[in-house]
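Aim 2 progress update. The chain analyzed this quarter is reproduced below.
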Amino acid sequence: MGTQVVAVANQKGGVGKTTTTINVSASLARQGQRVLMVDLDPQANATSGIGVEKSDGGSVYESLVGDALLSDQIIRTSYENLSVIPGEVNLCGAEIDLPRMEDSLHRLQRALHSVKMANVFDVVIIDCPPSLGSLTLNAFVAADSLLVPIQCEYYALEGISMVRQIIDQVRDSGDNPTLHIIGIAMTMYDGRTRLSQQVLDEVREHFSDIVFETTIPRATRLAEAPSHGKPALVYDPDGLATAAYDVLAGELLQRLNQIELAPDNVVDVTAFQNPLPVQNQA
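Predicted structure tokens:
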């Protein structure tokens, strides 16, 4: 398997996107994969969540808008097999600068090209901003596939139809004709509520085998881990959510090693353009 680029994306905030990026990256690294985590979010929560200091000029920004080598921004973390390109607030400027540039949607793809060709990493995982702006579109063009986290809550379903529309636009435009969703990760699952189970059942019904079997439970220590600059496997090694992310990473790795999904296999999400009926959450 050559270097695979996976973007973790959902336009809605609060769905566990960054938590998924951090913990899937750390679990893949522990399973022996050489992982590069790219923090494309100006908030840089994935950076601090893995225990790396934010620093001016340390992000992908200069490679996006200039000629800086992306490899110069790579930092080795304290965890074996896991490196990171940090985020920083300057990435906010990229949302303004990129649309003015030639081939504005291909800047990240070009910057990552030398990293992929060097074959130093098995997997590059990109934490996208919680929006569908220029940075996220660059990630969509640069990625081989998308991992979409969905929170097991009522309004979280709305985001994925927008993600699918953008995927279709990126593919139809020719900017990345093979882009596909490699999997949907159900996060913040609470088995005590009817709503969580209903959302899970509805997603599995409509998305079939594209949904990962593993669901990520809602857990206090999982939520606490980023504030300590540690992935869950270090902060809470015996936690249920930690174990779930380990299994999820294994599922992702299995899919990455399979024959690449054909674009026609991406599941239609138009069923989620209308909200689910309100149910008693007790």
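The first helix runs from residue 17 to 30. Residues 259-282 have pLDDT under 50 and may be disordered. These observations will guide the mutagenesis experiments scheduled for the next reporting period.
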